[in-house]
Amino acid sequence: xxxTPYIGASIKRKEDYRFLTGAGNYTxxxxxxxxxxxCFVRSPHAHAKIKSIKKDKALKAPGVVAIFTGxxxxxxxxxxxxxxxxxxxxxxxxxxxxxxxxxxxxxxxHVGDQVAVxxxxxxxxxxxxxxxxxxxxxxxxxVVRAGEARKKGAPVVHDIAPDNTCYVWGLGDKAAVDKxxxxxxxxxxxxxxxxxxxxxxxxxRAANAAYSxxxxxxxxxxxxxxxxxxxxxxxxxxxxxxxxxxxxIAPDVxxxxxxxxxxxxxxxxxxxxxxxxxxxxxxxAERSESFLSDAHGRDHVTKAELAMDRDGKFLAMRVTTxxxxxxxxxxxxxxxxxxxxxxxxxxxxxxxxxYAEVTAVFTNTAPVDAYRGAGRPEATYVVERLVETAAxxxxxxxxxxxxxxxxxxFPYQTPVALLYDTGNYEATLAEALKVADVAGFPGRKAEAAxxxxxxxxxxxxxxxxxxxAPSNVAGALGARAGLFEAAEVRVHPTGKITVxxxxxxxxxxxxxxxxxxxxxxxxxxxxxxxxVHGDTGKVLFGMGTYGSRSIAVGGAAxxxxxxxxxxxxxxxxxxxxxxxxxxxxxxxxxxxxxxxDKKKAFAEVSLAAYVPHNYPLDKLEPGLNENxxxxxxxxxFPAGSHICEVEVDPDTGNVRVVNFTAIDDFGKIINxxxxxxxxxxxxxxxxxxxxxxxxxxxxxxGQLVTGSYLDYCIPRADDVPNFKVxxxxxxxxxxxxxxxxxxxxxxxxxxxxxMNALTDALGMRDIEMPATPQRIWRACQDMKKAA
Amino acid sequence: MTVKVSLTVNGKPxxxxxxxxxxxxxxxxxxxxxxxxxxxxxxxxxxxxxxxxNGRAVKSCNMLAMQAEGADILTIExxxxxxxxxxxMQEAFRQHHGLQCGFCTPGMVxxxxxxxxNHPNPTEDQIREQLDGNLCRCTGYxxxxxxxxxxxxxxxx
Lengths: 787, 157
Known about the structure:
Radius of gyration of chain B: 15 Å
Helix content of chain A: 25-40%
Low-confidence stretches of chain A: none
Number of helices of chain A: 19
Distance between the termini of chain B: 48 Å
Strand order of the largest sheet of chain A: 3-5-1-12-9-10-11
CATH topology of the largest domain in chain B: Ubiquitin-like (UB roll)
CATH superfamily of the largest domain in chain A: Aldehyde oxidase/xanthine dehydrogenase, molybdopterin binding domain
Largest sheet of chain B: 5 strands, mixed
Shape of chain B: globular
Order of helices and strands of chain B: EEHEEEHHHH
Number of strands of chain B: 5
Strand content of chain A: 15-25%
Strand order of the largest sheet of chain B: 2-1-5-3-4
Number of domains of chain A: 4
Low-confidence stretches of chain B: none
Distance between the termini of chain A: 65 Å
Number of helices of chain B: 5
Oligomer: heterodimer
């Protein structure tokens, strides 16, 4: 719209200058006058009773201001952390929701569980004194693996769940699925573990809480993806504080990937204690604390079956999954392996009947919640590993079996609750086949073989559901929150604009993308638009950023508010030009009387709104400022085709991703440069899951073995290739921008594509993720022996 | 016990009385309030704390402040020209979208400048190998590699 085509242009980011010059403002950069420092005493055991906590020696240590334990919080009636989604089990019973205390009450349930907080003058003094807090533990046996939590005699994590079961949940028509399987010509079955991951945003979690006696208000700076939700949960459900007396600020945030969606115990404890000690309290996690206490991701044990007719047409799918919740239910833990997983099992295919049963279990590990993709990478892994394996078993071309089963007409109602509005799966696959030069693969494979290397090719055609909605449907499914987004567009008298959005950016570039949308829609220069986010004291409300929802939901809310601005501007312009409102059109940044050369620039109209001398005051309020809330009619459904090519050195087990092609359909693209960047990052996390990243707890002791960057390998620059990415556009049909969201796609498609390529190279049915050189080398040795 | 540390930071003399155990990165962040240098891992693996000391890239979380006594330190705040014009490496990161959340970026830029100094015309493989000590969780490195390659063509010209 207008003379300034920002939408669709790779505009360089507005936020970059501050980040490139060290002028970013992350939570740990915030220094409040008189601030003290907190250090959390954490459990060294996976499971233990707390017999006593002696803090007298620590209290006498230099610089100590205060020490609080679970007893202090209980006495002050500080509640536990709530779970935001109620899952109802197959028997109609609500899920088990054990208490999640901010500081342990009598028992610790995972290594790193918070036991006490020490507050001191300096960070070093807090750390020193924390070592003097003497906790007497009675160790208990621990269970850490999902597959073992329900075994007879397994240690019990919570008394209210004696079989460690949070819920057993089902989706789909079980009888119809069983019947289809009974009559199938071929059934492909796979059993695998979707490996547990640790998100590892490079900025560790941090918080700085202050209390003001002058107006009895609290301010919490926190590295978080959704400050309003953090405030709502904390005030209404945990601390019982008046919501309007608490301000939560999430300034620049150094990556989230889901792990900073949640309300964490440290945030609550600091806020509560800030009033107690009447000083600001700052805490920044050390990396080892991040490994131990950030919410982890994935951790499924799954059996998946696909029934086909003799031509490879899918007849039914049956999936049984055990999902590890960890020791407590994190904020959205319960909906990840259910609502965001089983509903995606149709993938891009017309499989007529599907049944999924998910058992969620408690273990003595850190809580598990959404991590980039959240349920959808797990679903894609199930579907795409099954489909590729089925193609091999049926001796069909992997592209062909997919084409045969693609959904081709829209809207399409899946058997697992979702209604896909639009898509073109054939288009993304065809483009991916071309870009990946699949036709040339046999030649490359032969060339690699001459060098003693094994090449493999693997596909993943994923579907994603973004922007969970609408709120009332989500509510009926158990959501305890709304899923809309809010925006305010404030036009200043000079026509400059500040947009306040409830979406939060922590790398996604909203300050640029959202400004492109607004500047285009109003026909004004990009530099006249600023985007403000991440502060409950400035932004009217917000549900925050997760699930690739920001442009589809947050962007749509902004558009709605902009459209209200234009509507009011037309009334003002009509008055100024003595024309009928119906004759005014808004074009290229000006209000024009149709069919004439009479016009008023946007800034002239905004000035008239704030200096209302010639203004219809009897009919119209002065000022130009509009709010909007947008609650989507449906999810959006990004989809795409990923093709991965790997090369394995059978002598060392070393594997290299030599080519990776991702052709995605994100609907309308606002800023291609930013979208490509999102895909690159997602793909790298997906490749990490497949090849390098695996969270490992020792089976007996429950100790986190992968608790540092030496043991937990997030991909480095030489672990990933140059990516070939591209897009196809089928605009979303139900939001004003036609957008779908792009933040998680890479992490959703990549693990299946990589593992399909790797199993192709090795000629194996399956290999466990992460497929490290050691695992691959062992597999190669086993194959040699078998041959 | 405290100790006085004096050094030059971004061309200006700086000194402070600090605890002996103070790490250089904390001295830079807390005492000098130059918060562009970040702490991502505490264990010298992520590289977010990378600065230049006497012309070489070092990880400032991995040494004591007093080990830098008398040293010439350059942090991310001193890389652009005084008039605000970006260094060619910073400009290349901006042009090629080599940053997202920005947290690893200062360390990445400091390492990258050092990389190009040591390898004036690096290949893609060399860049990927040399970036081993800097972790980025957002970009997948694709655009960082592109930016460094581009900057190697514009630096010193």
